Amino acid sequence: MIYSKRYASSPKEVKQMDTDTLRETFLINDLMQEDEISLTYSHYDRYIAGSAVPKKKELKLETVDLLKAEYFLERRELGIINVGAKGSVSVDGETYTLEHKEALYIGCGKKDVVFKSEDSTSPAKFYFNSAPAHKELPTKKVGMQEANKLELGSLETANHRTVNQLIIGGIVETCQLQMGLTELKTGSVWNTMPAHVHDRRMEIYFYLDIPEEQAVCHFMGEPQETRHVWMHNHQAIISPPWSIHAGSGTSNYSFIWGMAGENLDYADMDIAKIKELR
Ligand SMILES: O=C(O)C(=O)C[C@H](O)C(=O)CO
Ligand SMILES: [Zn+2]
What we know:
By secondary structure, the protein is mostly beta strands. The protein has one domain: Sandwich (Jelly Rolls). Helices cover 5% and strands 44% of the residues. The chain has helices at 11-15, 19-26; strands at 2-6, 27-28, 37-42, 48-52, 59-60, 76-82, 87-91, 94-98, 103-106, 113-117, 126-132, 140-142, 148-152, 161-167, 178-184, 190-191, 196-197, 201-208, 216-222, 225-231, 236-239, 244-249, 254-261, 270-271. The termini are far apart. Its EC number is 5.3.1.17. This is 4-deoxy-L-threo-5-hexosulose-uronate ketol-isomerase. Catalyzes the isomerization of 5-dehydro-4-deoxy-D-glucuronate to 3-deoxy-D-glycero-2,5-hexodiulosonate. Its cofactor is Zn(2+). It is an enzyme of class 5 (isomerase).
């Protein structure tokens, strides 16, 4: 298992950071390694982002010492989205097949979570997020057809996109986790514009579908004190609750957003006016 921990930083601290420090503190660039589970534990809302790519062998989600738990989901819930080829997740012996871009929610209390690929020449690539949970809730699979879809932006402002809300109230009951997958239309490059903050929830963006040789410039920081981090395919970035999180690509792309914190209200955002960004 590849495992790391990230501390929380204050706006004052982030203001002083150079490129390397900013990347070490917020960028997650060890995801999607074959036959490995990678985990990053953030002190923001004790959120975990990780991946599992079972190529030659099945991968079991084991607990880590930091959790001081008998098993990974003893006090946590888990959301998984498959960004690779067909695979399955077995949850205490029950198997859920996940096609490309299908999601699975697993409530706390499940002891045995095992990731498998259908075909080792074309493995499944599972991206997952986990947050502390206070009660057991049913496991549920959600396909892209079941997603709650928001059509946002326009081609004129280069931000026409579909926000597919997958693990969200009304579709799946969770304790504090929300996850979804946003896809930008051809010709649109800006996600989450106008940008926002939500002091009540932290968030992590995981970028995917970025073509080879292209990249996304992710913007973070307080709305009047922004910084940027260049992102490549299958990298993720932690957004503190006080930070904007938005990006512009050199082509269109997709990203998975996941968040947790004080509430489960997706629409609870404080918009940062474009003209007031600095
Ligand atoms: O493109 C968007 O807009 C998003 O996908 C926004 C995220 O869902 C988000 O930041 C939710 O807080
Ligand atoms: Zn957000």
